């Protein structure tokens, strides 16, 4: 492999990371928000798929992809609110509800999405940030999607709010010690309900990216488990929104290895490289299971840690 | 709600609240939890509230704090009748409470905990300004706690200080403390209570403290009220009362088992020998660093130490909950591996701390829990696997009667029993046979007076019968009372041993602090 080929591969991986990481980022941020409040929503895979379908359908009917993004968020928020409302009932396990919501979300999306497999909806435009470069590969890789910028802003806002706003402190309090929060007159259930709803909104927006930008169409196999991997990603990121972004890039880059190699003609092990994010998930789970940092940063009220 | 506390930098003035209840009564169904209780806490006094478990102390303070509405009776604050409908009302009137468990949020820093606890916490927090205000606040306080690290990383004593600082930060002028020292070492307890006492003397606050410990009452309180079965049965100035009087008021006519006297026998041969026990924390630093200790037959060796110096880990190693990295345990010169067979063969028994967590399955019945040592041996089992519940229940009934475990039946889940009764049930299981080695950790943690007496006398009885007893305790008084020899642990090793008769609190304290 010549130097030039290596460069092409690296640039392709960078471009792929920027492209593929966005849904990871949104779902992870949504899950991070929800888990910070002390609840796990495993249903975000379903939220992602329903978000993708809603975005595509809305964009198709209204002609505005941004309305589609909003519709995806609303659909996600509705699923999140449902999860939050069910978990308020006594003796309900949020993990079990999450799995049910995942199946419900995907089922709903497939049911309503049948009609949108064929037609083509208007897609989100990309922002060319690579115009300064005379390398067509780099220019192509730096075709930034607008949602990634939204995601970065949301991540930064979340990170800042967790430490510097009353809402942020109340959210962390509810997630870490429900008795303390209750003693202060905070309605823990309400906080969690709102956090799950907002988290659902973000995950829905992540779905909009799938159908409106990359791959950019509505099919049933659109998500392939990205919503579930994002849950692992939050653990890896130790419940920090900025680290969630970094972890999303890492996952995106891992997902881009296969296509990048293919672009320079290496097809050997294509499917193996395509499985890289899944293998990465596995290793990250093993590595973070023994990590003391993860044990310290985990919100105390999470049912997975109790 | 009070103004921003940083604004009130007045010199000490009479800020302490006085509180009086008149004829407070509260019934839960048929149970009269409070019956016509009248208690007066003078402004600037340190008032102790004594009583056994279930005597109504908690009900009284919860009625004061607005968690319950009293059925009858009045509450006077600074002489004025006041209605307190909920805990928020209480806070607004300057009443603050420190609970037995910590109410700080572990993942937040001290500063975050303080600021968010304010009712007027701003939507967007200007940390530079808040930090300045907090520093000014701490300058006025007699004690401080680290504010910039997550509370989870603080030691129990620091957390307790922070809990109290939080109330002072919220401008609370009457503090109710619910057994504030049960999580502290003697030194920490003395320090915190001493500082609070100083604040009451300067009339900055009044304190109402629920406690079981007479030493704390006589050392720190000005006045005491004693409750028994929901009634106020006596009290007065502490200077005019003896501990015996207080104990009699507290317990009433209840029969207490005579404390087993220390039989004057000479200790026998070495039974339990710990040789160079070394253990780490999941690959982390060493928590036990070559612990060497011998316990002879018919003696109690008390292990003292500031909490977190390896005492709990030592018990975990002996009970098989933690793996040894190095070192050996010998019982009667035979190597001892903490497995079920060795426990049985070498007659090693134990009462770990928090028995509900470490020695019982909360959802299994009392009878099943009592059979943990013997469920797979005759008569409870045939061929080691076919279990017969009949003999188990019969044995449990006998133990329940003998050890006075208060339970509805043998089939009650052990998790539903009160702390003292869980302790008794586990002790019954561990002591009902022949005991060669007994390992006990904080056996009286959070128990009422009668239970404490009973459990201590049980331990003493085993010693008198010739068992080698290793007593790990954070209560130095308990160690001084029970032990024949004292060992002090510091930084994972035993750095001092001495016959109890030849040492004193000061010497032990010095070694606890690590200064040899």
Describe this structure in words.
- The complex is a heterodimer of chains A (306) and B (516).
- Chain A is mostly helical.
- Chain A has a single domain (22-126, 144-255, 272-305), classed as ABC transporter involved in vitamin B12 uptake, BtuC, CATH 1.10.3470.
- Chain A has 14 helices and 2 strands.
- A two-stranded antiparallel ribbon of chain A has the order 1-2.
- In chain A, helix 1 runs antiparallel to helix 11 (241-263), helix 6 packs across helix 7 (166-176) and helix 10 packs parallel to helix 13 (276-289).
- By secondary structure, chain B is an alpha/beta fold.
- In chain B, helix 14 (419-431) packs parallel to helix 15 (449-464).
- Chain B folds into 3 domains: 19-251, Rossmann fold (3-Layer(aba) Sandwich), CATH 3.40.50.300; 268-347 and 434-516, P-loop containing nucleotide triphosphate hydrolases (Rossmann fold, 3-Layer(aba) Sandwich), CATH 3.40.50; 357-432, no CATH class.
- Residues 1-12 of chain B have low confidence and may be disordered.
- The A-B interface holds A 163-167, 169-170, 172-173, 175-177, 179-181, 183-185, 290, 292, 296-297, 299-300 and B 87-88, 99, 101, 103-108, 112, 115-117, 121-125, 127, 152, 282, 284.
The tally of strands of chain A reads 2
Oligomeric form? heterodimer
Helix count of chain B?
17
- Contiguous low-pLDDT stretches of chain B (5 residues minimum) are 1-12
Which fold name corresponds to the CATH topology of the largest domain in chain B?
Rossmann fold
Mean pLDDT of chain A: 88
Instruction: Determine the structural class of chain B based on helices, strands and strand pairing.
Output: alpha/beta
Strand proportion of chain A: under 5%
Strand content of chain B: 25-35%
CATH-assigned fold name of chain A: ABC transporter involved in vitamin B12 uptake, BtuC
Radius of gyration of chain B: 25 Å
**Tell me, what is the CATH class of chain A?**
Mainly Alpha
- Spatial separation of the terminal alpha carbons of chain B: 51 Å
């Amino acid at each position: 492999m010549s130097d030039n080929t290596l460069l092409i591969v690296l640039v392709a991986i960078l471009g792929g990371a920027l492209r593929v990481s966005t849904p990871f980022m949104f779902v992870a941020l949504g899950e991070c928000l929800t888990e910070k409040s002390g609840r796990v929503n495993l249903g975000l895979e379903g939220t992602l798929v329903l978000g993708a379908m809603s975005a595509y359908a809305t964009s198709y009917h209204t002609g505005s992809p941004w309305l589609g993004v909003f519709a995806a968020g609303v659909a996600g928020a509705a699923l999140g609110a449902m999860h939050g409302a069910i978990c308020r009932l006594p003796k309900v396990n949020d993990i079990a509800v999450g799995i049910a919501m995942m199946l419900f979300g995907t089922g709903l999306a497939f049911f309503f999405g049948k009609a949108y497999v064929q037609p083509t909806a208007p897609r989100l435009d990309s922002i060319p940030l690579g115009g300064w470069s005379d390398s067509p590969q780099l220019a192509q890789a730096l075709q930034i999607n607008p949602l990634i910028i939204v995601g970065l802003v949301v991540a930064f806002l979340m990170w800042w709010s967790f430490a510097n706003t009353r809402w942020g402190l109340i959210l962390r309090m509810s997630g870490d010690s429900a008795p303390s929060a209750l003693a202060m007159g905070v309605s823990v259930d309400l906080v969690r309900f709102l956090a799950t709803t907002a988290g659902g909104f973000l995950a829905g927006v992540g779905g909009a990216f799938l159908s409106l930008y990359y791959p950019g169409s509505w099919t049933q196999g659109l998500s392939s488990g990205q919503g579930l991997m994002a849950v692992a990603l939050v653990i890896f990121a130790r419940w920090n929104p900025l680290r969630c972004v970094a972890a999303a890039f890492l996952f995106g880059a891992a997902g881009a290895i296969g296509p990048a190699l293919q672009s320079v003609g290496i097809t050997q092990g294509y499917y193996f490289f395509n499985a890289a994010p899944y293998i990465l998930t596995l290793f990250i789970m093993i590595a973070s299971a023994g990590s003391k940092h993860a044990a310290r940063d985990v919100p105390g009220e999470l049912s997975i840690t109790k | 709600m009070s103004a921003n506390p940083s604004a009130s930098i007045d010199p000490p003035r009479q800020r302490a609240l006085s509180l009086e209840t008149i004829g407070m009564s509260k019934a839960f169904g048929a149970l009269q939890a409070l019956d016509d209780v009248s208690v007066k806490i003078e402004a600037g006094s340190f008032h102790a509230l004594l009583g056994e478990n279930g005597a109504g102390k908690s009900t009284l303070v919860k009625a004061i704090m607005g968690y319950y509405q009293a059925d009858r009776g009045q509450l006077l604050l600074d002489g004025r009748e006041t209605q307190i409908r909920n805990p928020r009302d209480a806070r607004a009137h300057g009443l603050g409470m420190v609970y037995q468990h910590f109410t700080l949020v572990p993942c937040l820093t001290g500063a975050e905990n303080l600021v968010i606890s304010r009712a007027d916490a701003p939507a967007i927090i200007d940390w530079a300004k808040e930090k300045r205000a907090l520093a000014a606040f701490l300058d006025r306080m007699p004690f401080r706690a680290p504010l910039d690290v997550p509370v989870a990383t603080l030691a129990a004593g620091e957390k307790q200080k922070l809990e109290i600082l939080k109330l002072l930060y919220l401008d609370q002028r009457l503090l109710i403390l619910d057994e504030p020292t049960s999580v502290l070492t003697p030194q920490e307890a003395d320090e915190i209570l001493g500082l609070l006492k100083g604040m009451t003397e300067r009339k900055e606050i009044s304190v109402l403290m629920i406690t079981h410990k007479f030493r704390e009452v006589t050392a720190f309180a000005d006045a005491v009220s004693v409750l028994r079965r929901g009634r106020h049965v006596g009290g007065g100035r502490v200077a005019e009362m003896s501990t015996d009087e207080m104990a009699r008021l507290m317990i009433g006519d209840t029969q207490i088992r005579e404390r087993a006297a220390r039989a004057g026998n000479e200790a026998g041969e070495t039974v339990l020998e710990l040789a160079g026990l070394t253990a780490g924390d999941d690959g982390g630093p060493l928590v036990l660093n070559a612990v060497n200790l011998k316990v002879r037959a018919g003696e109690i060796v008390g292990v003292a130490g500031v909490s977190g110096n390896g005492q709990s880990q030592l018990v975990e190693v002996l009970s098989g909950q933690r793996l040894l990295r190095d070192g050996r345990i010998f019982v009667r010169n035979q190597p001892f591996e903490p497995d079920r067979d060795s426990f049985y063969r070498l007659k090693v028994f134990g009462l770990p701390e928090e028995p509900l967590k470490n020695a019982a399955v909360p959802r299994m019945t009392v009878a099943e829990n009592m059979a943990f040592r013997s469920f797979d041996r005759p008569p409870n089992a045939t061929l080691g696997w076919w279990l017969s519940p009949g003999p188990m229940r019969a044995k449990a009934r006998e133990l329940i009667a003998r050890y006075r475990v208060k339970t509805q039946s043998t089939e009650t889940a052990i998790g539903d029993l009160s702390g003292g009764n869980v302790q008794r049930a586990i002790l019954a299981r561990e002591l009902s046979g022949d005991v060669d080695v007994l390992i006990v950790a904080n056996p009286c943690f959070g128990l009422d007076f009668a239970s404490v007496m009973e459990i201590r006398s049980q331990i003493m009885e085993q010693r008198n019968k010739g068992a080698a007893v290793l007593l790990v305790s954070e209560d130095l008084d308990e160690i001084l009372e029970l032990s024949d020899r004292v060992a002090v642990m510091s930084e994972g090793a035993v750095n001092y041993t001495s016959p109890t008769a030849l040492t004193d609190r000061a010497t032990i304290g010095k070694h606890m602090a690590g200064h040899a």
